[in-house]
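Lab notebook: predicted structure, single chain.

Context: the supervisor wants predicted structures on file for every construct in the current expression panel, including those that have not yet been purified. This is the next one on the list. No modifications to the sequence; it matches the entry in the shared construct table.
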Amino acid sequence: MRVLSAESPTPLRAVAPLLLDWYDRHARDLPWRAPPGTPAMDPYRVWLSEIMLQQTTVAAVRDYFLRFTGRWPTVEALAAADDAEVMAAWAGLGYYARARNLLATARAVARAGGFPTTREGLQALPGVGPYTSAAVAAIAFDRAETVVDGNVERVVARLFAVPTPLPAAKRELGTLAATLTPAQRPGDFAQAMMDLGATICTPRSPACGICPLVEPCAARAAGIQSDLPRRSPKAAKPVRTGTVWVALDAGRVLLERRPPKGLLGGTLGFPTTGWDGTDLPAPVAATWQDMGEVRHVFTHFELRLRVLRAAPEPAAVPGRGDWTQRSGFDAGALPGLMRKVWTLAR
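Prediction complete. Output recorded below exactly as produced.
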């Protein structure tokens, strides 16, 4: 059995043909993809999907992508969209800085008359980092860029039997992945690596028996494929606490738009304090009923938010936020945290 290594040029050359042949037959049908072998793709759809897929699953993104492209079919249409409408359409995908950067990039691209075609040019756009710029350059413009996400890291760690645990192994895995990237069909190769990791070379119980790269896989040869990639123990997330107020008044609900930058920036929700560094007073003079606690996990911390509800007198002045008619209130357009709050409070 051949074993893949950085010093074995024949197996290295064999990886791309083996994987592309498999991809031609088994590529996932995704709404932002062109069929295998298509020389170039719509950069708007590639970029939009990659931004949406950050920290999110394909299953969660599919419907959002179809709604976005149905409503804003071109980057020019998105550039002309109202900020609040885009933020509402983004609700549920999380990481709202991405939505703000989405609009900033769409407007920059519309002004420039199109997307940059190189990784360097793409990475200069708001919110476009090394991974996204490489993905758009490879998939949309057929540039020979190496695209490395979590799926690709897992495939490469097993192909080369890399013992170094993540995240310390990231640089090494990126270097090894670059040795596999072909000059021909680099976009298809990038998507094939992602598909392989998502459907066959999965985190648990990889399906080695049907893997196109089973022969050159060093981890498979050593019988350690299920143990890789190794991971360093995660540190416990710090806990933040705060208060959120849900005020209802004669068919109305009190809502407040958050500052454009920072946590949940630019989104609509219920007035809060404490957890985000603020120390703000309750929005109305009323007797508040303690409804319990909601918990929500952000990337860097866990939030425990005390939910207080009140039905103030109609003449009460909020002091902060604005009354919104319940008939026009859509809880589904709120961020995930605020939807949890509404579910508990109502």
